[in-house]
Amino acid sequence: MCVLIYRCKISQLNMCLDIELNLRLLIIDVHQIRGDKCWRDLTCMNYHYETQPVPNPISWFMHHAPQEWHMFETMSNHVVELVMPWLLLLPWRSAVAMGGVVQILFQTVIIVSGNFSFLNWLTMLPAIFCFDDEHLSPLFSLKTLKCVPVAEKLADRNHHRPVRYQRAVLNCMIGMFLAFLSIPVVQNLLSPNQQMNTSFESFRLVNTYGAFGSITKDRTEVILEGTTDEQFTANTRWKEFEFKCKPGRVTRTPCLISPYHYRLDWLMWFAAFQHYQQNPWFINLVAKLLEGDEDVRNLIAHDPFQNSSTLPKYIRAQHYGYQYTVPGSEGSGAVWTRKYLKPYMPPVSLTQLKEFREERGFLRNPPEKKGKKAKKGKSGASEVQQWYYLFFSYEDLRYP
After folding, report:
1. Do the beta carbons of residue 84 and residue 97 sit within 8 Å?
2. What is the Cα–Cα distance from 236 to 113, expressed in whole angstroms?
3. Alpha helices by DSSP H, the chain
4. What is the pLDDT of residues 54-74, one digit of tens each?
5. Which of the listed ranges 255-259, 329-333, 386-390 does the model predict with the highest average pLDDT?
6. How far apart are alpha carbons 391 and 264 in whole angstroms?
7. Is the pLDDT of residue 184 over 50?
């Protein structure tokens, strides 16, 4: 423990991490400014809290903040990501520490305002290296702090000059290698046709990352509905499937799950922007619900047919527009208002999906995990198999 909290006053590791955090934040904000006009006219935060992938209970209140506050939020985003990162490169300890505090506070605000899984928690980690022993000492007990001088002596005793030079040469070589790989990344950043979230080499060591380069102005949701009727008509009664966190029932309070991540709910947000035929996993999800698969049922909050003796004969998907309720309507118990837009996927039966699933390889059993015995789900399938069944096929072994 004593050795872990010891660090040199000027650390090459700290400098590299500070530079990396600095460049990443700068690139993200450059992507944003060039990606959507609302980042330039300071209106992006008017939409963000309502249209983000998985809102939390605080998002409703932040969405209804005054217009001037939303403009301040957007401007603050630019200051934090374009101006404040330069503090991390200054030679003054107080400036570096201030830059670290700003970045941690910025990520904390994002965590409070929405469910972005572990993304923002991980982004905080490099900022910790902006602080030295003097800043971090209040976090440790007096007993631990007394060990620090001992750790310093051990470090000085083992600090051989040849090793220091070898480490410096290795660091320079790694830096030059990454700089060479980053050439197409910088070219893409300056290009008028820049691409976001793209890798330019096979090992994916460097890439472009642009979270929320374009802000969605309207929220749409895909709602799954099923029926036990042998033939569906205009009078057919459809029952809704409820997901664990994504908006569904208008009266359900948004969940709070960060840093946990419901991958299926997240993917459903993306699916609403696309056609269902672009997402084979979505079609297989419907098929698994038609089969009453227990492992897939565990991925959602409520299957209306789970306690029924009859499985659904047909499932369809409907496209709805969602908006937050306005202040003053709390008495209704609703958080959202929704409006039917159009069909997303027509009613389908298990028989109709059989050929598609065979062509995509969804009906084949994946290989058992070798070595240690895999953990089994309720249906007897391992956790690896559960995800194969839902998202993967043997012709397309990749995440959607």
Report:
1. no
2. 40
3. 2-5, 12-35, 45-51, 59-63, 67-78, 93-113, 119-128, 133-136, 142-145, 148-157, 161-181, 183-190, 263-271, 280-291, 294-297, 350-360, 383-391
4. 999 999 999 999 999 999 999
5. 255-259
6. 10
7. yes
d(Cα 302, Cα 242) in Å, to the nearest integer?
5
Instruction: Match 């664990």 to its residue by tokens.
Output: 244
Contacts of 229 (CB under 8 A, 6+ apart): 236, 237, 313, 314
The tokens describing 385, both together, are 């198999």
Q: How far is CA 207 from CA 182, 213, 267, in A?
A: 8, 15, 22
* Residue at 104: amino acid letter: I
DSSP 130-193: T--HHHHGGGS-HHHHTTHHHHHHHHHHT--HHHHHHHHHHHHHHHHHHHHHTHHHHHHHHSTT
pTM: 0.77
- List the alpha helices (DSSP H) in 292-373: 294-297, 350-360
Q: What is the mean pLDDT of the chain?
A: 81
* pLDDT at res. 32: 58
What's the pLDDT tens digit per position in 5-49? 333 333 444 545 555 555 555 555 555 555 678 888 999 999 999
Side by side, which strands form the sheet with 314-324? 239-240, 219-227, 314-324, 336-348
How many Å is the maximal CA-CA distance in the chain?
A: 83
DSSP state of 217: S
Structure tokens at 37: 């006009």
SS3 of the chain: helix, strand, coil, percent, to 5 = 50, 10, 40
